[in-house]
Design goal:
mainly alpha; 2 strands; elongated
Length: about 140
């Protein structure tokens, strides 16, 4: 029974976030192309990283907690990890965005910048340049 531990944890994660899809209707699963676009980069990099780490002795898997089926040189549970955990994270993110409508999650279209208020013309500052007709400056020639 211990061989099902990793799969049971992954199934628990999916079951724990399933109400977000069913109750809040976050629509992550129906938008499967968007979900795949989010999952594939992490899956590819995660599997590559794990393969490197296992082959170089930096990482290993306790076979007592695995069903024994390998996929791409890794336990199937580990490959599923890179699908299940990000899916649960996306479900959670979408649920928070649904409950807090104004909360930006990063994929919203950019809002057009509001045009700046026209600046009022500034009064010319003549205090430091002097007035050619100012009697206080008799040595200054008129311009």
């Amino acid at each position: 029974m211990r061989q099902l531990t990793y799969l049971a944890v992954l199934a628990g994660c999916l079951l724990g976030t399933l109400p977000l899809e069913l109750v809040l209707r976050v629509r992550v699963y129906p938008r499967w192309r968007r979900l795949l676009a989010a999952l594939v980069p992490g899956l590819v990099l995660g599997v590559a990283w794990d393969l490197y780490a296992v082959r170089h002795g930096h990482w290993h898997f306790d076979r007592d907690y695995l069903i024994g089926l390998d996929l791409a040189g890794l336990p199937v549970e580990e490959v599923l990890f890179f699908v299940v955990i990000p899916t649960c994270a996306i479900l959670t993110l979408e649920a928070v965005a649904r409950r807090r409508p104004g909360w930006p999650i990063g994929d919203e279209p950019a809002e057009p910048a509001e045009p700046a208020e026209p600046a009022e013309p500034a009064e010319p500052n003549t205090a430091d340049c002097g007035d050619p007709r100012d009697p206080a400056e008799p040595d200054r020639p008129a311009r």
